[in-house]
Design goal:
With about 230 residues, the chain is of the alpha+beta class. Helices cover about 35% and strands about 15% of the residues.
Length: about 230
């Protein structure tokens, strides 16, 4: 993967892409304006993401006391890079924020991956073990990314182990991901899916980048309370 900012890649933000503002579609432009960022005031949109365990192992696990350790740590890394290397340059965070940035569309546009039957983006290198972390606009002159499009690994997957591994058949290549069935099973007593996803674990793509137990527990625990509230409200 091309990393225009090597220091951030070394820290764990291994997925990076630079998009000229003029290449953004209307959904992305509207998302910027929704948080009072005028696109014409900036040169590029920079996307960063984690892949595998590096960001957790090097930084986040030491910052678990923070209210949102992944977001806060990632933003802090970008801020530190600007302060050290380009202290006079302007930049502004677009994600995480209230901006409805179409992350899935952007992931496909920059070659990070395609939608999978689990509802997650699948990356050719990191498989399902990737996440968007920080997107920001800046006037810094960064070269636009050129990432060749590749075929989704799911398109040539004959065995479909993710379908077989899901205990409630929530994963389907043909019908998509059944969010409700998955959520209801995760909150049942002694559910094996409370703090992991058996279907996700079964995917062979990028298996060597699978999160460790502590990181896995953190990611899934952070959303479990919201799922319980959603199920209870219905």
């Amino acid at each position: 993967m091309n990393a225009p900012i090597p220091e951030l890649a070394e820290a764990g933000l291994v997925l990076q892409a630079v998009l000229p503002i003029g290449d953004l579609n209307q959904d992305s432009l509207n998302a910027l304006r929704s948080i009072n960022i005028e696109p014409s005031d900036w040169s590029v949109l920079v996307l960063t993401g984690q892949g595998g365990r590096i960001l957790w192992d090097k930084h986040v696990r030491h910052n678990r006391h923070r209210s949102d350790p992944f977001d806060e740590t990632s933003i802090s890394l970008v801020d530190s890079w600007f302060r050290t290397n380009h202290p006079t340059e302007r930049w502004s965070v677009v994600y995480p924020s209230n901006a409805p940035l179409p992350l899935g569309q952007l992931a496909q546009q920059v070659g990070w991956g395609d939608p999978s039957p689990l509802g997650l983006t699948i990356n050719p290198e990191y498989g399902l073990w990737m996440s968007h972390r920080v997107a920001f606009v800046t006037s810094l002159d960064l070269p636009a990314s050129t990432q060749p499009r590749t075929q989704s690994p799911c398109a040539t997957c004959a065995d479909r182990p993710c379908e077989a591994a899901c205990p409630v058949a929530a994963v389907s290549f043909d019908d998509g991901f059944d969010v409700r069935s998955c959520a209801e099973h995760r909150v049942t007593a002694a559910s094996p899916c409370a703090y992991q996803c058996l279907a996700r674990n079964s995917c062979p793509v990028g298996a060597e980048h699978r999160y460790g137990d502590d990181q896995m527990h953190h990611h899934y625990a952070s959303g479990l309370a919201s799922i319980r509230e959603w199920i209870a409200s219905d």
